[in-house]
């Protein structure tokens, strides 16, 4: 026998269920008067936010090709200079006009999520190499037992993507495009496939 | 909000034996919503170590009182009045200060206030069924509510959810993001629920069951249930010999 390490165990995840919107986006589901606005709703940018304006749109799609209409998607991203608006950011002070986090329920008819944001800057991997611009995604829904983590990279960043240390380690190169948001003008399309030939790469972060 | 300097180290690797796998066919909705391929491991970069932190200033006065936050003046919801309280800790046992905790639940009859909810139990006109709070400097949180009822759900022909409260928790890093559910001590439905049974580890299930806490009841008013939530721990700064990005 040895000394006990004494660590606790992380609480087990449970599905967010079909009614996650009651708790996280009540106004979206028609329950008004308790919160002024849903947390994380609306545009991430204001007039003073630095950076290139983009709109990210997509759907979360199940193994039968059907878009989820009850998913909740959250994003977390760096500012235009690659800095996070977080107490754990050590490299500098992020743009005070960019919080970097938002959540969006899928549209009740189409399942589409939309984020009005900016394109993030590059930031270093743990060994100092630069990662390509990316947005972190977290997806919960009924039937998802543990929230799914993925990243969206940008199709107009071929050079940076080629140098990205995370993308570089993906053995099955045919899967890399599942992490690339397709940019046309200021619109970036990023569909998340839970299963099938186009199954998105999810990360154990 | 807290005196300790912000922590900047990566999180402990997630112990996935404590969590449900994605594919649990007895909970039918997982069949088409579970990724089939192995996850790709991604040790913490700044993108995972950092996360949004919310201040107490986002809160309205009664956000942590579901008994009043939707009720008409002078009225209140039907049901057993309870106080739910506990701490948000990390795996080191350290209280997580300033953690945003959101919760939602069915009413005393087991009915949710949602457009797509079809259960025949009635809506309670004085119960919205959701609230939120931010933990104090020691990681404590509490809220008042009424005890939710169990409800049947479309899975098997006779599947019932035990009484439960849904929780969404933000720690200090996005990798700590967690959604879970709290169950109530003594509920026989816990052990036959297909969603509870997605968790492979019996001890991990027990850690989601809140015990009755008679020391913290409010006499002649409400009983208390104690529910601690554990988020992922962080590596010690002592061992951080690599400065990120420098
Ligand atoms: Fe529920």
In words, what does this structure look like?
The complex is a heterodimer of chains A (205) and B (246). With 205 residues, chain A is mainly beta. Chain A is built from 3 helices and 13 strands, in the order αβββββββββααββββ. Chain A has helices at residues 20-24, 158-163, 165-168; strands spanning 53-58, 60-61, 72-77, 101-105, 113-118, 123-124, 130-131, 135-140, 148-154, 180-184, 187-189, 192-193, 203-204. In chain A, the strands form 3 sheets. Chain A has an 8-stranded mixed β-sheet, with no helix packed on it. A two-stranded parallel sheet of chain A has the order 2-12. Chain A has a two-stranded antiparallel ribbon with strand order 6-7. In chain B, 4% of the residues lie in helices and 22% in strands. Chain B has helices spanning 46-49, 202-206; strands at residues 40-41, 81-90, 100-104, 130-134, 140-146, 151-152, 160-161, 164-169, 178-184, 209-210, 223-226, 229-231. A 5-stranded mixed β-sheet of chain B has the order 4-3-8-9-10, with no helix packed on it. In chain B, strands 2, 5, 11 and 12 form a 4-stranded mixed β-sheet that branches. The longest helix of chain B has 5 residues, at 202-206. Chain B starts with 39 loop residues before the first strand and ends in a 15-residue tail after the last strand. The mean pLDDT of chain B is 94. Classes of the chains: A mainly beta (205), B mainly beta (246). Strand 13 of chain A pairs parallel with strand 1 of chain B.
Strand order of the largest sheet of chain A: 4-3-8-9-10-11-1-5
Beta-strand proportion of chain A: 25-35%
Order of helices and strands of chain B: EHEEEEEEEEHEEE
Q: What is the first-to-last residue Cα distance of chain B?
A: 28 Å
DSSP strand count of chain B: 12
Spatial strand arrangement across the major sheet of chain B? 4-3-8-9-10
Q: In percent, how helical is the residue content of chain B?
A: under 10%
Mean pLDDT of chain A: 97
The unreliable regions of chain B are: none
Secondary-structure element string of chain A: HEEEEEEEEEHHEEEE
> Helical residue percent of chain A?
under 10%
Unreliably modeled segments of chain A: none
- Using CB atoms under 8 Å apart, which protein chain pair has the greatest interface? A-B, 83 and 93 residues
Q: What is the tally of helical segments of chain A? A: 3
């Amino acid at each position: 026998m040895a000394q006990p390490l004494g660590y606790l165990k992380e609480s087990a995840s449970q599905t967010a269920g079909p009614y996650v919107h009651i708790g996280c986006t009540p106004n979206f589901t028609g329950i008004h008067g308790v919160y002024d606005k849903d947390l994380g709703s609306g545009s991430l940018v204001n007039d003073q936010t630095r950076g290139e304006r983009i709109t990210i749109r997509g759907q979360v799609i199940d193994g039968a090709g059907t878009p989820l209409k009850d998913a909740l998607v959250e994003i977390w991203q760096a500012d235009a200079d690659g800095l996070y608006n977080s107490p754990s950011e050590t490299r500098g002070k992020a743009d005070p006009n960019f919080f970097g986090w938002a959540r969006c329920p899928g549209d009740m008819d189409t399942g589409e999520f939309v984020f009005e944001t900016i394109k993030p800057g590059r930031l270093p991997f743990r060994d100092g190499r630069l990662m390509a611009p990316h947005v972190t995604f977290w997806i919960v829904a009924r039937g998802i037992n543990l929230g799914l983590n993925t990243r969206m990279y940008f199709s107009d960043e071929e050079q940076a993507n080629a140098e990205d240390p995370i993308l570089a380690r993906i053995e099955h190169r045919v899967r890399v495009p599942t992490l690339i948001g397709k940019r046309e003008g200021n619109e970036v399309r990023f569909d998340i496939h839970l299963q099938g030939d186009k199954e998105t790469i999810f990360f154990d972060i | 909000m807290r005196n300790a300097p912000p922590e900047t180290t990566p999180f402990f690797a997630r112990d996935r034996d404590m969590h449900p796998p994605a594919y649990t066919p007895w909970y039918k909705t997982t069949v088409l919503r579970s990724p089939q391929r192995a996850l790709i491991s991604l040790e913490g970069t700044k993108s995972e170590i950092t996360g949004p932190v919310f201040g107490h200033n986002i809160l309205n006065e009664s956000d942590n009182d579901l008994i009043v936050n939707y009720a008409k003046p002078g009225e209140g919801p039907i049901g057993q009045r309870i106080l739910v309280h506990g701490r948000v800790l990390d795996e080191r046992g350290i209280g997580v200060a300033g953690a945003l905790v959101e919760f939602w639940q069915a009413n005393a009859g087991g009915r949710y206030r949602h457009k797509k909810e079809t259960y025949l139990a009635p809506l309670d006109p004085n119960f919205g069924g959701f609230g939120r709070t931010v933990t104090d400097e020691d990681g404590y949180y509490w809220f008042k509510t009424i005890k939710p009822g169990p409800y049947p759900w479309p899975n098997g022909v006779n599947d019932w959810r035990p009484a439960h409260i849904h929780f969404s928790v933000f720690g200090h890093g996005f990798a700590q993001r967690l959604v879970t559910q709290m169950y109530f001590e003594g509920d026989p439905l816990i052990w036959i629920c297909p969603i509870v049974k997605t968790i492979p580890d019996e001890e991990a299930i027990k850690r989601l069951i809140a015990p009755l806490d008679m020391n913290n009841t409010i006499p002649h008013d409400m009983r208390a249930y104690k529910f601690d939530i554990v988020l992922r721990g962080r590596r010690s700064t002592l061992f951080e010999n690599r400065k990120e990005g420098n």
